[in-house]
Amino acid sequence: MPIDESKSLVGSLSVESVALQWSSVTQRVAEASKKSGRSPSEVTIVGITKYVDSQTAMWLWGAGCTDLGESRPQSLWEKQAALDAVSLSDERKIRWHFIGHLQRNKSLKTIANLSLLQSLDSVRLAQQVQRDAESLGISVDALVEVNVSGEPNKTGILSQDLPAVLDDLAGLDRIQVRGLMGMAGLQTTNPRTDFAKLRKLRDDMVIRFGDQFQLGQLSMGMSGDFEEAIEEGSTMVRIGSLLFEPIGS
User: Fold this and answer.
1) What is the pLDDT of residues 214-238, one digit of tens each?
2) Fewer Cβ in 10 A, N or C end of the chain?
3) Rounded Cα distance, 117 and 111, in Å
4) Is 222 within 8 Å of 237 (Cβ atoms)?
5) Closest CA to 99 of 219, 199, 216
6) Cα–Cα distance between 68 and 49 in angstroms, integer?
7) Rounded to 10 degrees, what is the CA torsion of 102, 115, 183, 103?
8) Would 4 be classed as within a structural domain?
9) Are the CB atoms for 55 and 86 separated by under 8 Å?
């Protein structure tokens, strides 16, 4: 599916505006990384394309974003079909991330061409992913989603339950746990508080489990709070709406 630049506007967006927003976000990530004494290369920007159509997602990829994320399986499948044919012929192959709650009956198709499942939020889902990965003959890289704020309306493993969940995941050889994912609570006054809790939880799990898991990834921070997340140790920020705001908004 080639990019049709003759139709450069989707609503108030354009190839140019998406490229400018991508440049602005990468600059802000670089500045936040340097402020915290880290290299910008230590932080991956995952462009969350759930707000836009496949054409606009392709503009983002064209601007330089090779990690794209979706929160609904059908949208992921749709965009993969539209974009992968182009990116596979390019050295900048897209790495697809799934960030939403994954229903077990949609696991098989979702994990088939996924780079990272960021929202592994229950042992039952993990067991289904294990079975589906076996049938596909693949391994699945995943982050365990943690409900670090403890808010009842959020998905994710409660902090106090994480050690027991990781014990269960240790026996699933088709799932490679690479770290933790979480977000600041809606009731949290300062998002850095929850980000710091998640970082400490990850560090505690590294000490507890040693070489059983490689828990280097911390996916935390979104459009409104990614700079604070980076300063608290985030290695992946999930940026959606900020990338698709009209210029000057």
Assistant:
1) 999 999 999 999 999 999 999 999 9
2) C
3) 8
4) yes
5) 219
6) 7
7) 0
8) no
9) no
* CA dist., res. 202 & res. 220, Å (int): 12
> Does a structural domain hold residue 18?
yes
Q: Report strand pairing: 157-158 vs 175-181.
A: unpaired
* CA 218 to centroid of chain Cα atoms: 10
Which residue has tokens 């943690």?
Answer: 146
Examine residue 248 and state whether it is found in any structural domain, yes or no. no
The Cβ-side half-sphere exposure at 223, using a 13 Å CA radius, reads 13
Query: What is this structure's pTM?
Result: 0.92
Domain at 219, CATH number: 3.20.20.10
Residue 38 lies in a domain: yes
Q: Which domain holds residue 216?
A: 14-243
Helix, strand, or coil here: 144? Answer: strand
The structure tokens listed for 213 are 């898991």
Domain tally for the chain? Answer: 1
